[in-house]
Specification:
The complex is a heterodimer of chains A (about 300) and B (about 280).
Chain A: H1 3-35, H2 55-62, H3 64-95, H4 102-107, H5 110-114, H6 117-128, H7 134-141, H8 158-182, H9 187-195, H10 200-228, H11 232-237, H12 249-258, H13 263-294
Helix pairs in contact in A: 3-8, 3-10, 6-8, 8-10, 10-13, 12-13
Chain B: H1 5-33, H2 37-41, H3 55-60, H4 68-103, H5 108-119, H6 126-135, H7 142-166, H8 170-178, H9 183-194, H10 196-212, H11 215-220, H12 229-238, H13 244-265, H14 269-274
Classes of the chains: A mainly alpha (about 300), B mainly alpha (about 280).
């Protein structure tokens, strides 16, 4: 085919995808951008609005509640993602050992990953339940706890308990990725290292980790992007409470827009959150571009 | 490498702990679903109920007016309709797009732009979409969910299928092209069958993503006509005088299809994961 004709075919094949993406993503995105400079409210038909320039953003800069939500979301993201990576690598190393029933045990990693997020949230909420919960029963029966506690009702523990539930669901994915990466590390490297007298600890840092760090860092960035958007698990487990101690940025935008019906400032908050995610998303795209160039 | 006996014992102990940590929470969900409320509040807790009670599962499959079963079954129906339709649209538009990216290089920035939209927080789209659906009378309608799920599924399918097509050798297409086949024939009769495994994986992943989605469904639906399973489950869990056994039963039933698909996907799982299905 002639180059011009090729180009036409290429765009023709892209047309359905581009049209859908323009309608459901690009158009709403631009609309949000416009809304953020207005005082529009969500009530009634259409928007009643006035252009107020940067007022929404000026307010955000000064909003200590929002800053607190950003802090909580960062805490959630950093803590859960780093725990997921550490636990994921440890479990991958374990499941890479020889033992009976290894295929079956490895398949178990699928279970938490495939469990719907909402079901995971409900499951852990029931486990943490102050009266019915098995966590209280377990801890009192083995003598670690004197009396039943309300894990999610206490601002001191609620956030960390949700993080624990999130780790359980998401670390198996990191383990699966690490396990696959482990298969690509050449075996003879280990044999040579043993001949040189390197112990297991040195072998891990000098051979294993460098061999899996590539896939691991991609997975880590992806998880961090997802974790920063977190909403579902908090909606079911705590609704942002108690005393706002688990109110994340997505929850914040959701309330601003759909509880207080302030579309203008809701859009401004949403854009601010997106800009923060944008930082991590650009790291990810840089990783993709580099990978594409290598292949 | 030979392992010492101590090392072997340690490995088995660690594996046993791992297996227990994965299975115990789900097992507890099942126990709750067949336990009487009185059994669960006994201190110290009796872990295995004396009289297993499967009545909640029976209740969930009854269609009586105003029953939990009606709520559950409508949500199940809505979830299936939304997931299947959104996946079909995503494949129909995503396959040609992925083929274009794979066979006619030079438009990579566009693919990256699509990937970026896939990763953006949904909060940045919710208000305009809400207004449009409200103006079109599509709020509380599965149609709006099908449309909005395209923002998630379409970039994902395009991306996954592009790497699928990349691994199909161009030579076999050229042979068909010399024999006079047009592009549509080449794509449907040669490339897609060769890339059948990635197409199947992309479809199953898309179904899982749609099945799991909660945020848009919460915002754009309000009753049994359009609520999907995640929203119905959150409702069950939020009620005041809640039957914990019933919530557990609903959760387990909703988890069954994706978990089965997950095990079925095991082989092709990693290609999908590396393409960014790291939903949390």
């Amino acid at each position: 085919m002639a180059p011009a004709q090729q180009d036409r075919t290429a765009w023709l094949l892209l047309t359905p995808m581009i049209s859908i993406m323009v309608l459901v993503t690009a158009f709403p995105l631009l609309n949000t951008l416009w809304l953020a400079f207005t005082d529009a409210s969500l009530t009634g038909q259409g928007y009643v609005w006035q252009w107020i320039g940067l007022e929404n953003f000026a307010y955000i800069l000064d909003d200590s509640d929002f800053r607190a939500a950003v802090g909580r979301t960062t805490y959630f993201t950093v803590l859960s993602v780093s725990a997921e990576v550490v636990l994921g690598v440890l479990v991958a190393l374990l499941l890479n050992q020889e033992f009976k029933g290894r295929t079956l045990v490895r398949a178990l990693l699928i279970l938490p990953w495939a469990l719907p997020t909402i079901v995971n949230a409900v499951m852990w909420r029931l486990i943490y339940n102050p009266e019915y919960g098995s966590l209280n029963a377990l801890l009192t029966q083995i003598g670690l706890l004197d009396a039943y506690r309300s894990w999610l009702g206490d601002p001191a523990t609620a956030m960390n308990m949700v993080i624990l539930a999130d780790i359980w669901k998401n670390y198996p994915l990191i383990a699966l990725i690490a396990l696959a990466a482990l298969q690509t590390v050449p075996k003879d490297l280990y044999e040579a290292a043993i001949m040189d007298g390197a112990n297991a600890w040195t072998r891990f840092w000098k051979i294993t980790l460098p061999g899996i760090i590539g896939s691991l860092s991609v997975a880590m960035v992806l998880r961090a992007i997802e974790a920063f958007k977190v909403f579902d698990i908090f909606y079911v487990m705590t609704r942002g409470g108690p005393a706002d101690s688990t109110k994340t940025v997505s929850f914040f935008v959701y309330q601003e827009s759909f509880t207080y019906l302030r579309a203008g400032s809701g859009a401004a908050y949403a854009l601010t959150v997106t800009a923060m995610s944008g930082l991590m998303i650009s790291i990810y795209v840089v990783m993709l571009v580099r990978r594409e160039k290598r292949s | 490498m030979r392992r010492s006996l101590t090392a072997t014992i340690l490995v088995y102990v660690a594996v046993a702990l791992f297996v227990a940590s994965i299975l115990a929470p789900v097992a507890w969900l099942f126990i709750m679903s067949i336990s009487d409320a009185n059994d669960l509040t006994t201190i110290p807790l009796r872990w295995i109920p004396e009289q297993p009670d499967f009545s909640r599962y029976a209740r969930l499959f009854s269609l009586e007016e105003g029953s939990a079963g009606l709520t559950f079954l409508s949500a199940l129906r809505n979830s299936v309709i939304v997931a299947v339709s959104a996946t079909a649209i995503a494949l129909a538009a995503g396959i040609p797009a992925a083929y274009s990216f794979s066979r006619y290089p030079g438009r990579m920035p566009l693919l990256y732009a699509v990937i970026v939209t896939y990763m953006m927080p949904p909060v940045v789209l919710i208000l305009p979409l809400y207004k449009v659906f409200s103006a079109l009378g599509l709020l509380n309608n599965v149609t709006s969910l099908i449309i909005v799920y395209c923002t998630i599924l379409l970039p994902f399918v395009t991306w996954l299928m592009k790497s699928g097509f990349d691994s199909v050798p161009v030579e076999i297409e050229q042979a068909a092209s010399i024999d006079g086949a047009n592009l549509f024939q080449i794509l449907t009769r040669i490339t897609l069958p060769v890339a059948a495994a990635s197409t199947g994986a992309a479809a199953l992943f898309a179904l899982l993503l749609a099945w799991d989605e909660f945020f848009y469904a919460l915002l754009y639906t309000s009753d049994t006509r359009a609520k999907t399973l995640p929203v119905a489950i959150a409702d069950f869990a939020a009620g005041r005088a809640t039957d914990y056994g019933l919530i557990s039963a609903v959760g387990l039933l909703a988890a069954l299809p994706p978990v089965l698909i997950g095990f079925f996907l095991q082989k092709s799982l990693l290609s999908g994961l590396s393409a960014g299905s790291v939903k949390g």
